[in-house]
Specification:
The protein has about 280 residues and is mainly alpha-helical. The chain has 15 helices and no strands. α9 runs antiparallel to α10, α11 runs antiparallel to α12 and α13 runs antiparallel to α14.
């Protein structure tokens, strides 16, 4: 199952790279705040667990859908520890099929029953994973809002946690009109821990969005030195490509291909390498 998740994640990186680079970071361009706030409020009112569950079930195996639906129907009459146990089972099901949006709602419900730091953090991480690979801007804005709330709740319990600060900082940059507050949080994390992979990766991505590819390269070089993965090498390669360092881009693309070992990604990267080698 972990292998399937990796392939899905890497495929999403390829499909969304052009989309990512085409989007300005909110707050660094002119935007009507009242319009943005109204859109965010409306999105949060319409995007709920029932909706994302229905959407996530599309395309799933019929037996998996039935298992998930059975657990959901039992929740209505459950309470306390029994409900928490059902939610744990439901979280495992959504995690197995790599559906982050409903997973976020499940962890948030668990946190409301038993307000543990780990539940709020997992809720925030799941919401963030869901909106990061989403081109539906209405749903993405709502999930971003949910992520911010979850990370804020986590930090109320443990204000020093660097993973929660990283998540909140990234969510601020992605979904609010105050991206600099998010970047400040991320910089606070790397000041406390220069080797924090999540914060370095987020800062690298935001450097790419603002077309500061030299800074992105520095961030992703650190990330792959600490925790090499196909996605980070892909971002590193793309950053090299954007400033004309073709040899370095080819080497990083090859690393991404070797780590992913996914046929779709391999074909895409081989085409990129051919283009860059001419």
């Amino acid at each position: 199952m972990h292998r399937t998740k990796q392939i899905i994640a890497v495929a999403a990186v390829v499909l969304l790279m052009g989309f990512l680079l085409a989007q300005p970071i909110k707050g660094l361009v002119n935007e009507d705040k009242s319009t943005a706030d109204a859109a965010g409020s409306g999105a949060a009112n319409t995007v709920n667990f029932e909706l994302v569950s229905q959407q996530a079930k599309r395309g799933l195996n019929a037996s998996i859908i039935q298992e998930i639906s059975d657990l959901e129907s039992k929740l209505a009459d459950a309470s306390g520890t029994a409900k928490l146990d059902l939610l744990q089972q439901l979280a495992a099901k959504w995690d197995d099929v790599n559906e982050s949006a409903p997973l976020g709602f499940v962890y948030e419900e668990m946190a409301k029953i038993d307000p543990q730091f780990s539940y709020w953090l997992k809720a925030g991480d799941a919401y963030r994973a869901a909106y990061t690979n989403l081109q539906d801007t209405v749903t993405a804005r709502a999930l971003n809002d949910y992520a911010i709330n979850a990370y804020e709740q986590a930090l109320e319990i443990n204000s020093a946690d660097l993973d929660a600060k990283t998540g909140l900082g990234s969510a601020y940059v992605s979904g609010t009109n105050n991206p600099m507050a998010g970047i400040a949080l991320l910089q606070e994390v790397v000041k406390a821990d220069p080797d924090h992979v999540g914060a370095n990766k987020s800062l690298g991505l935001f450097s790419m969005q603002s077309r500061q590819f030299d800074r992105a390269i520095d961030r992703f070089k650190k990330v792959v030195a600490l925790q090499p993965d196909a996605e980070s090498y892909f971002y590193l390669a793309t950053s090299y490509e954007n400033i004309g360092l073709k040899r370095e881009a080819v080497a990083a693309f090859e690393k991404s291909r070797d780590l992913a070992a996914d046929p779709t990604l391999t074909q895409f990267i081989n085409r990129k390498i051919d283009e860059l080698s001419k």
